[in-house]
Amino acid sequence: MAQNHFPREFNVINRYTIRAMLWLNGFAHITIGLALAVSVMMFAWLFFLDVRVAVFSNNLVHGFLNALGTLMLLWSISALISAEIRYLMGAKLEVETFIEVAMVLVLRKLIIMPVQEVVPDPMEVLLWVGAGLMLGLTFVLVRWGQKQRVE
Questions:
Q1: Is residue 3 in some structural domain?
Q2: CA pair distance 115, 46, nearest whole angstrom
Q3: Is the Cβ–Cβ distance between 63 and 51 less than 8 Å?
Q4: Could you tell me if residue 2 is inside a domain?
Q5: Rounded to whole angstroms, how far apart are CA atoms 69 and 85?
Q6: Quick count: other Cβ atoms within 10 Å of Cβ 71?
Q7: Burial readout 72-101 (b: 16 or more C-beta within 10 A, e: otherwise)
Q8: pLDDT (tens digit, 0 to 9) for every residue of the chain, 151 residues total?
Q9: Residue 90 φ/ψ region, left for φ over 0, alpha for ψ in the -120 to 50 degree band, beta for the rest
């Protein structure tokens, strides 16, 4: 694709700028990958701490729901790592990955709501449920659109 919006004298500068930006983008994705790896270790550690607290507390259900919430964060990080690996291998970032992560986080919020220190009002619960339904619908529409494009 020819670029006609720059004077020819800027071609060299443009080429070096693009190389620098590609290098910087690669560095950013390596940094994202390393940060995701560190977060896996942190959330795994937090999950095991939550399980330990659940076992030794008087309220096993409360501890279990907190541990499940942490596990769902770990699941979200895993989905992001998978997307990052696919991107680094040359694939495009799929919007459905981010919709899936958002759905998991909304579901996590709904799961831990009963054990929060502050009891949510019915409107807040309704908004979270509505967000989950809208994300689910968006996910289905995106998948349907991708299926239509393939056929």
A1: no
A2: 17
A3: yes
A4: no
A5: 25
A6: 17
A7: bbbbbbebbbebbeebeeeeeeeebbebbb
A8: 555 677 777 888 888 999 999 999 989 988 998 999 999 999 999 999 988 888 888 878 888 888 898 999 999 999 999 988 888 888 888 888 899 999 999 999 998 888 878 888 899 999 999 999 999 999 999 999 888 887 7
A9: left
If one counts every other C-beta atom within 10 angstroms of the C-beta of residue 60, the result is: 11
Asked whether the beta carbons of 5 and 49 are under 8 A apart, the reply is no
The gap between the terminal CA atoms of the chain, to the nearest Å, is 28
Give domain status of residue 1, yes or no. no
- Number of compact structural domains in the chain: 1
38 lies in which domain range?
8-150
Task: Report if residue 112 sits inside a domain.
Answer: yes
